[in-house]
Design brief:
The protein is mainly alpha-helical. Helix content is 29%, strand content 0%. About 17% of the residues have low confidence. Bound molecules: heme C (2 copies).
Length: 190
């Protein structure tokens, strides 16, 4: 393309854009406050719009959702204090075999992205002794066909998918979970 034809082509594009903008501006119908007039029009039509279908009425105080701590949906409740992540360095018991163990230390600012995985700084087999961290188990090096890889498996790369810190927050919903040892000892007692 020669310089002249390039100039002509870009001039056409600029002209086309300018005319579209001018057309939009003339049709926007902007009010003195800068607010489009449509909002006034829609408020007027809303007054005659058919009423919404009736919804089931929940008796006051019945508590819609335990996560809302029994408060009515139209009530604002004081949020609980921010919970702190536990940083005890003491491993917790696992509730069942193959449970991903919870993280016994804080993980603030531990970056996990395409270029770096902070967790593997300590938890890779090669570094674990230096940091006295438990190395990730062999399952973390297995691909979906159970083949062992030399480095962490892509499906185990984002640690927080499965491992989480624990906080000192009080549970909002009661939990009746019993591990298998408790179930077995209860059966034996009966
Ligand atoms: C600075 C080193 C270091 C880094 C970084 C680190 N950890 Fe740890 N991690 C440890 C050590 C040491 C332990 C052993 C318990 C302790 O001392 O806290 C541990 C324990 C754990 C455990 C408990 C294992 C078990 O058997 O109970 C899990 C799970 C864990 N870390 C996950 C993570 C995850 C996920 C990340 C990244 C978000 C991470 N760690 C980053 C050092 C580290
Ligand atoms: C898809 C879920 C998943 C992801 C992702 C995952 N883990 Fe695990 N992790 C587990 C499970 C399940 C176990 C317990 C059974 C096992 O060892 O496979 C475990 C065990 C561990 C243990 C204890 C090992 C032992 O021998 O006691 C450590 C430490 C750990 N993971 C760290 C990590 C780190 C660090 C990452 C990220 C690089 C990670 N995990 C990613 C599921 C996961």
């Amino acid at each position: 393309m020669s310089n002249t034809s390039r100039f002509v082509a870009s001039a056409i594009v600029v002209l086309a854009l300018a005319s579209v903008l001018a057309f939009v501006a003339s049709h926007r119908n902007v009010g003195p406050t800068g607010k489009p007039h449509e909002s006034v029009a829609s408020a007027a039509t809303a007054a005659v719009a058919p009423p919404l279908p009736a919804v089931a009425v929940v008796p006051a105080g019945a508590g819609l959702d335990a996560l809302r701590r029994g408060a009515d949906i139209d009530k604002e409740i004081a949020p609980p204090a921010m919970a702190r992540a536990e940083n005890t360095d003491i491993k917790r018991n696992r509730a069942y075999p193959m449970q991903p163990p919870t993280i016994p230390h804080t993980i603030d600012n531990y970056q996990i992205d395409r270029n770096s995985n902070r967790c593997m700084l300590c938890h890779a087999r090669a570094n674990a002794d230096k940091f006295q961290a438990p190395p990730v188990s062999v399952t973390h090096y297995m691909d979906r066909d159970d083949q062992f890889l030399a480095t962490i498996s892509p499906r185990r790369y984002f640690c927080n998918q499965c491992h989480v810190v624990q906080t000192d927050a009080q549970p909002l919903v009661a939990n009746g979970f019993k591990d298998i040892d408790t179930v077995l000892s209860e059966q034996k007692a009966n």
